[in-house]
Amino acid sequence: MTDLLFPEDTLARRIAAYENTAKANEGLHALFTAQTDRIAYLKRHRDWVEKNRWGMGDRAFHYMWMLILADAAARFPSLDLLEIGVFKGQTISLWALITRELGLNASITAISPFEGNLKPQPRLLHSLRKKLDPTYREANAVGNLHAIDDYLARNREIFTAFDLDFGGVKAIKGFSNAPEITAQVSNETFALVYIDGDHTLEVARSDIATYAPLVRAGGYLIMDDAACFLPGETFWKGFESVSKACEDIPALGFTNVINIGHNRIFQKNGS
Description:
2 domains; Rossmann fold; globular; 271 residues
């Protein structure tokens, strides 16, 4: 099965064969990286992201997302998707691209500040603040510092680059743990929720507690930057804070069915 390519390859087949071992995790990450480059539109999107420095993540995730979206589309009559923490729009534009290429109808909701929090500053000042300011030091350590910018405009740029319609995205501007933000989706359900927001333990746990219950039975909760306690050494593991927050997920009715690099995929129990 290792050399199968979509559509013969499926998420269900990968889950059935999965073992949480160093060999399996490293092998899947390497294989999914190669599979991304074998599908022209996935490769083109990831090449654009890397060339333009439009976000982080791994090349392997492009193929991962194709398998997840195809599986979710087969499970549910509507493909409603939610991302927490959007940055420049790499993931939501990829969702839009994949669903267009596969002929799927998707509804995308994106929750993010869309503005950044780091003013331009000399390198020396940055170093001093890391040394003297514990709050700043933690924010830097967990990847929570982003240059101030109009990230709604950046999202539109990547959508435009691939002839996609950002106007169809429900973009909710604000922090994921703010009551006025959570209220806007509290009565909705989603085929999948992707959490890639604030990486502190407190907020990661809050995001899980708030948004995991919105996943439909049989749907998926995907946690980014969450593999610090998993076996495997050839891929970046993410942050200990987010990895620890994932310990809360099984009690909410989810099973960790497969992991690709630092992305952990949990499926909500039930049909």
